[in-house]
Amino acid sequence: MDSSLRNRLTFGPIMLAALLGLLCLDHYVQVKTQAAGMVRETDDRVLWARWRDAYPEKPAVLPKEPTPINYGIGGVGLLVLLIIILPLATEEVARLFTAENVQPYRFISAAGSGSLVIHAFMTQFPTFQPVAASSMAFIIVFVMLFAALRRAWSRQTQGAIVHMAGTVLSTLYLGGLGWFLMALRVKHSFKSSGVQGSTMIVVMILLVVKFTDIGAFFGGKAIGRHKLIPWLSPGKTWEGLICGMLTAGAVGALLARWINPPVYPLPWEKGFIFGMIIGGIGQLGDLLESLMKRDAEVKDSGKLVPGFGGILDIIDSPLLAAPFAYLMFSLF
Fold it and tell me: Helix, strand, coil shares of the chain as percentages rounded to 5?
């Protein structure tokens, strides 16, 4: 058996078990804290809007107060996962950037990425929401300022702009995209018919993206004839991409019924469309990383996970798909 395949069969189930464990923790914490009423909706406008959605035909006697809404604390497992992997991914991004003399400060970038993910986690708490926008701007600006101060501390002016730019870019690439994944997990909708963040939404994104890779691989092997972008990723074909997106659509349609039932019963046809779009964007994320790796003249972003490469090789597709998933679940 090929060593690469052996490593994949060994480390793949280990990573899958760890991921499932953290997602189970994620769901368990929310269920327990929801029963305890630890995170409640405090905006009367939201409470009355949700009440009106629940009772389209107004009863003769209106209640003095709308029905309270308990959300629970969501995203704990996902937060643990991102806090663990983002510093490792920051190290890999820094190595890719350094190949082109763009040298981000690793600690500042990792701290900024972690801060953005924690910020997204905090948006589920009503007391934090009034300062959410200003605190996000604060994090981004201070990443840049800390990078400048770090360069000034060494009493060097040469390369200051490159260090600052690399640090901010690394932070936004990992922490900014990770923010959307966490924000979608803890999202609360103004309407009862809108999407409510759940562990299942994260599972859907991860499965859709990975099944896109599987469908594209086998579809490309079977019927691939026309190269997608031969100068960037010669192994990818248009036929493989189409097969991957169709596979992603099928997975999205199958999982649609478990997206927040009965609050947000996602129709299977919408799940199919969402799956295709998220899967296609995930492939774009893979191509984006390929662009950086070719520029740095490396095959993999790292060697941390035998058979898979680096952390960045594993998370590039889900991260880029997250903002588009957030947009689609918010608008449609």
Answer: 70, 5, 25
Average pLDDT over residues 203-227: 92
Cα Rg for the chain, rounded, in angstroms? 22
Q: Say yes or no to pLDDT of 51 above 60.
A: no
Residue indicated by tokens 């189409």: 242
Residues with Cβ within 8 Å of 44's Cβ and at least 6 positions away in sequence, in order, are 66
Confidence label for 35 from pLDDT (cuts 50, 70 and 90)? confident
Distance CA 181, CA 282 (A): 13
Q: What is the DSSP letter of 39?
A: S
CB atoms within 10 A of CB 237: 22
Per-residue pLDDT, 136: 95
Helix axes 76-98, 268-296, angle to 10 degrees: 30
Identify which has the larger pLDDT, 139 or 127: 139
Local structure of residue 70 (DSSP, 8 states) = B
**How far is 304 from 310, CA to CA, in rounded Å?**
5
Residue 1 pLDDT greater than 60, yes or no: no
- Up-side HSE of residue 259: CA atoms within 13 Å toward CB? 29
Residue 330 identity: S
Q: Identify the pLDDT of residue 55.
A: 60
Q: Cα separation of 134 and 312, whole Å?
A: 29
Contacts 24+ apart (CB under 8 A), 64-71: 68/37, 68/40, 68/41, 69/40, 69/41, 70/34, 70/35, 70/37, 70/38, 70/39, 70/40, 71/30, 71/34, 71/39, 71/40, 71/41, 71/124, 71/188, 71/196
How many Å apart are CA 36 and CA 19, to the nearest integer? 26
Distance CA 120, CA 175 (A): 10
Given a contact cutoff of 8 angstroms between Cβ atoms, the answer to whether 256 and 270 are in contact is: yes
For 24, other C-beta atoms within 10 Å of its C-beta total 12
Residue 262 has pLDDT above 80, yes or no: no
Q: Directed axis angle between helix 238-255 and helix 199-223, to 10°?
A: 150
Amino acid at the residue 118: I
pTM, full prediction = 0.89
